[in-house]
Amino acid sequence: MPAVTADTTTLPRLAVPLPGQVERPVRSVTTAPSGREGEGFPVRRAFAGVSLADLDPFVHMDQTGEVDYAPGEPKGTPWHPHRGFETVTYMIDGTFQHQDSNGGGGVITDGATQWMTAGAGILHIETPPEQLVVSGGLFHGIQLWVNLPARDKFSPPRYQSIEGDQVVLLASPDGGALLRIIAGGLAGDAAGHRGPGATHTPITMMHATLFPGGRVTVPWEPGFSALAYILAGSGRVGDEGRPVRTGQLAVFGPGDYLTLAADDQQAGTDGRLEVLLLGGRPIREHVEMYGPFVMNTKEELRQAVADYQEGRLGVIPPNALMPHRVARRSG
């Protein structure tokens, strides 16, 4: 799991919690079921079974892989529409290409993030490049959907490319954990450390790596929701030491900071606990979802479908990126 790494002995340190600050309790732990997305690539549905009220302002997340594709197996998504939210693709291992009808696009690879605001409407595609379809290889990533409040549902589409070397790196006081801040920031003494992602809805998104036996307390904005999704490994969350493992989501209650700890023994070749930490200011508006549309009313969903069918969400550009198909041998 390359993402972005660093020697934790040289990084700025997180502050320890102050007297009187409250640790966030663990409200629930759920296990993501497996499914298929796009042209058939395997995903874990990270938020399955969790109420939108607990997820707010997030509405959906898939973990893609970790999967080691054989030659000819890598798959992506065809051209498809979005309206009413932001899509965030964080590529931990592997390479994806992106193109959209608003002129955004590029390559997402090891530790990079693309942040696409669909807003009023957009068409886009995400697909592995031809050489990786032919050769196969390791793929592991996250796609997160961040809701937009009603006032921003029809904002102009926007695309951000966040390279791996742009993320902000911090370490736990003992150097046993590495934090990569992709968007937003932390509370208290660490509030000056902010990631490069620019968002309509205030959120925090970071990837934490804990070495075996490592422990970290992360200051968290009291008004934000707080989620911890286990990308790989095993450990414990909260002061009660609730056990968690790969593919599980912990939802935290209110408080000033949250605690993560890695088991002394880790399964797998990497031997570390990998955690995606998410939180944001709740929007607290009614949500209606249908496929790639996230709106506030059923009428807005019907209008989104009609607008897509009539070409008002964008047009696939000339010489557009298309999924590469491996030719089948005859005979």
Automatic annotation (TrEMBL):
Has the keyword Oxidoreductase been applied to this entry? no
Q: Which UniProt keywords apply?
A: Iron, Metal-binding
Cofactor: binding comment: Binds 1 Fe cation per subunit.
* Cofactors: Fe cation
Endpoints of the signal sequence: none
Ranges for domain Pirin C-terminal come to: 206-313
Q: Any idea which positions bind Fe cation?
A: 80, 82, 124, 126
List, in alphabetical order, the Gene Ontology terms for molecular function in this entry: metal ion binding
What sequence ranges are listed for the domain Pirin N-terminal? 41-146
This protein's name: Pirin domain protein
Q: Which organism's genome codes for this protein? A: Candidatus Protofrankia datiscae
